[in-house]
Specification:
Order of helices and strands: HEEEEEEEEEEEEEEE
Helix content: 10-25%
Strand order of the largest sheet: 1-4-5-8-9-11-12-15
Oligomer: single chain
Number of strands: 15
Strand content: over 45%
Radius of gyration: 22 Å
Largest sheet: 8 strands, antiparallel, barrel
Shape: elongated
Length: 198
């Protein structure tokens, strides 16, 4: 009986310690589907009005909690591929990577739900620009970014989440080395993720 009581106490202590460790966890990593939907605001160039299509790929986040209600979030992803249309006709394509660093404020909500807002800075790399019969070049972009989102704890170390970002992305476009104007992409980025806290 004494051994059984000791075993029960040890088990309870172990579960409590695991829960406490999860609550004090400072690092988390998240992975899931990210969808980039450009707003294509005011992109009239020498080649005509330019629109950039949507793109979907694997999104990744690394997050560090440096205070009870504050964390730093680093957004990464596999390259997103986008079709480019001029005057409604698909003529080109490009890929991009949008690493973004944001500071997040987490609202103090009791329970498993965590809601947060934040803002930060984005740097977008363009690559693999393709244009039939000509050389297309898109300059890298730097600009502000905002985010709102939530996570829901499934177990002490696992959670699901969703977030919505707005990222200011604009790029100067060149064809055969000549400037044709600025392309304003300015996308909404939606992500649904699974997170692990450690």
């Amino acid at each position: 009986m004494h051994r059984l009581a000791c075993l029960g106490a040890a088990l309870s202590l172990s579960l409590f310690a695991g829960q406490l460790a999860a609550e004090e966890s400072k690092w988390s990593v998240r992975a899931g589907v990210a969808h980039v939907s450009p707003t294509n605001s005011a992109s009239n160039t020498d080649a005509g009005p330019i629109e950039v299509g949507d793109g979907t790929n694997l999104g990744l986040n690394l997050r560090y909690a440096f205070a009870p209600q504050w964390s730093v979030d680093i957004l990464g992803a596999l390259p997103f591929e986008h079709d480019i249309r001029v005057a409604g006709n698909e003529v080109a394509s490009t890929k991009h990577l949008p690493p973004t660093v944001s500071a997040l404020y987490h609202f103090n909500i009791p329970g498993a739900l965590d809601i947060f807002v934040g803002g930060g800075l984005n740097y977008t790399f363009f690559m693999d620009e393709q244009l039939d019969g000509a050389d297309l070049s898109l300059d890298d972009s730097i600009g502000p970014a905002g985010i709102i989102g939530m996570t829901y704890a499934l177990r002490p170390q696992w959670s699901i989440g969703a977030d919505l970002r707005y990222i200011a992305i604009e790029t100067d476009a060149k064809v055969n080395g000549s400037d044709i104007g600025t392309v304003d992409i300015n996308p909404w980025v939606f992500a649904a993720t699974l997170g692990y806290h450690f």
